[in-house]
Amino acid sequence: MKETNAAYIQAGDLVLLSGKDRREFMIKMIPGLQFQTHHGVLEHDDLIGQRWGATIKTHLGYTYLLLPPSLEQLVRGIRRTTQIVYPKEIGYLLMKMNIGPGTRVVEAGTGSGGLTLALARMVGPEGRVYSYEMREDIQALARKNLTRVGLANTVTFTLRDIHEGFDERDVDALFLDVREPWYYLAQAHTALKGGGFFGAVLPTTNQVSALLRGLETAPFGFVEVEELLLRAYKPTPARLRPQDRMIAHTGYLIFARALLRE
């Protein structure tokens, strides 16, 4: 991904525009282009060369703050036609599955590429993400999303039903975001190294129970089931209170470790 460490915005950078109403827009800086909203027009050429954290006004006088997007904002900002794994789950599973620079990780299915983006960002150029998807149109969208943020070269995309298995062996971690992951435990175990990290996300308890029954008879151990709830607060010092709305249940996380067959 193109680094935004420099003090000044450069051509090719992704810039997060945050208005007074906290509405956010993420745009890539391309010389000669314009960004247009009902609040007015911004010329990309006027943004390029500005300092990160500065403010700029549209031709109508509306002010935007210029910020480098966080990983959480990149994931939330992708174009999607499928449900994505939420950032609150992504951050936790990255730690639980020991995913970092140099990690080799398999995921299925790719979906719109939200988790793929986070995995690619974390493994870095020393690692590799192997992403499997059945639908060609969905995979094409994920490729586009990863290309936009400069991370597509870290990912190997494969169009295949994972019932046929994974090409990779001795990977560090494998994550399933599919409807019936219990049918693919043998394929997952074959791809993982001994002691490797297995993870899955499921929306309902009956699906979790089916996966737990599968894990009981497969060479996996250290099984865990967890759910994460995140509540935001209104950042007003005199009236600090929770937001009126909350993203509560978004999925159950299931983790296990691959054991050697006896």
Number of strands: 15
Overall pLDDT confidence:
94
**Low-confidence residue ranges:** none
- What name does the CATH topology of the largest domain carry? Rossmann fold
Strand order of the largest sheet: 9-8-7-10-11-15-12
Strand content of the residues, in percent? Answer: 25-35%
Describe this entry's structure for a reader.
The protein has two domains: 14-67, Vcp-like ATPase, Chain A, domain 2, CATH 3.10.330; 72-258, Vaccinia Virus protein VP39 (Rossmann fold). Helix 6 (185-191) links the parallel strand 10 and strand 11. The N and C termini lie far apart (43 Å). The protein is α/β, with parallel strands linked by helices and 262 residues long. The strands form four sheets. It has a seven-stranded mixed beta sheet with strand order 9-8-7-10-11-15-12, sandwiched between helices. The protein has helices spanning 44-47, 71-76, 87-96, 114-123, 136-148, 185-191, 205-217, and strands at 14-19, 24-28, 34-37, 40-43, 55-57, 63-67, 104-108, 128-133, 155-159, 171-176, 192-202, 220-227, 233-234, 241-242, 252-258. 34% of the residues are buried. The model has no long low-confidence stretch (mean pLDDT 94).
